[in-house]
What does this fold into?
Amino acid sequence: MRILAIEDAFPPELTSARLPFEFADELANRGHEITVVTVFPRRYLIPEKTKKIEVPKSRFFYWESMGRFLVLRVRPGLKVKSLVTRFLEYSVLPITLFIGGLIVGRNKDLVHCQTPPLTVAFTACLLSKILRKPIIIRIQDIHPDALIKIGLLKNRLLIKLMEFMELFVYVCASHITVISDGYKRHVLARGISSKKVSLIPNWANIDDTKPPNENDFRERMRLGGKFLVTYAGTISWPQDLETVVETANILRAHRDIMFLIVGDGVKKEMLVRRSRDLALNNIIFMPLQPRDEYFKILYASDVCLVPLRKQFTSPTLPSKMLEIMACGKPIIANVPFDSDVRKFVENARCGIWVEPENPKDFSKAVLVLRDNRDLAVKLGENGLLYLRNNLTLKACMDRYEELLNSLVEIRE
It folds into this structure.
């Protein structure tokens, strides 16, 4: 089968890039011909240690080989330095990806696109109509609902426009895949037939997350035997990281506990400033890290965090959860009670749920795991076992391949 994948993010970028790469790589390994259309590597999504990436300075596009499949990179045309330019990028990006898709899409059997951003999925649907090819839309986050719930999107006209785009994508798609029951309920509530929607969860490539042969992270950071509580990921509006800082303040007298926040985002400066105002010496901030270093950090941690604000009631299931579980680490999930995250953690028995924006309860959860190391180890083991039994790359891609084949057969 010949597949065209339209992707907003792809390695060497780290943010949201793992799943699209593993999707393409696994299908290529199974004998399918897959071509990925994506953007030039955006340096604000690449760790400082790996920013020495040579890309053409003046060309509109270039080809790159990634093992068994090809990647066509198109220039987005903007340098992102602020939230405004990032928004503009999301407006311009679909045009460049559309052109790239036209270049390589005519001899393909099927189009695949992941959303968000919604603008890229909208463009991919238009592309599929022009090419007269079926399209699968994979929903990783619900937009514009998620943006509205956190107060990032307030303009009524813009909300109406994005809701129109969302419905257009759902109606236009030949098939839709979602990663949790909450996502599926949302799509069905928009009037889409259940026959058109499949639940195929995100996966964890356990073979790719084995413990490093040597892990000197604790030694380099002079952590010794401290109980390390880690958040690694995007630092933006949905994440309830203010509670982490306030919890560090509550637990400052416990000198054996250290908090670590790894990543970048629009709220990082505010968090750093707050920790300085509190004169905290039990919290460390680090920038976005290369993938190998990221996993060293997870393995060096005693517990990892999945935080979401109270207002963020839109369906979501961060892929970082699976990476934490693949490393055998327990999770503290300070997320809304009705969230998919809480339900997932309870089903897998891999962590502790805490009400968001509640530093006192959060601090109690940290102390419970610090004082009961056997419980922490057991929760971590439960998470790894749950992945092995339910969410391996092979199991999820078996279901995906079956779906791809059925769509192409129907088309023929």
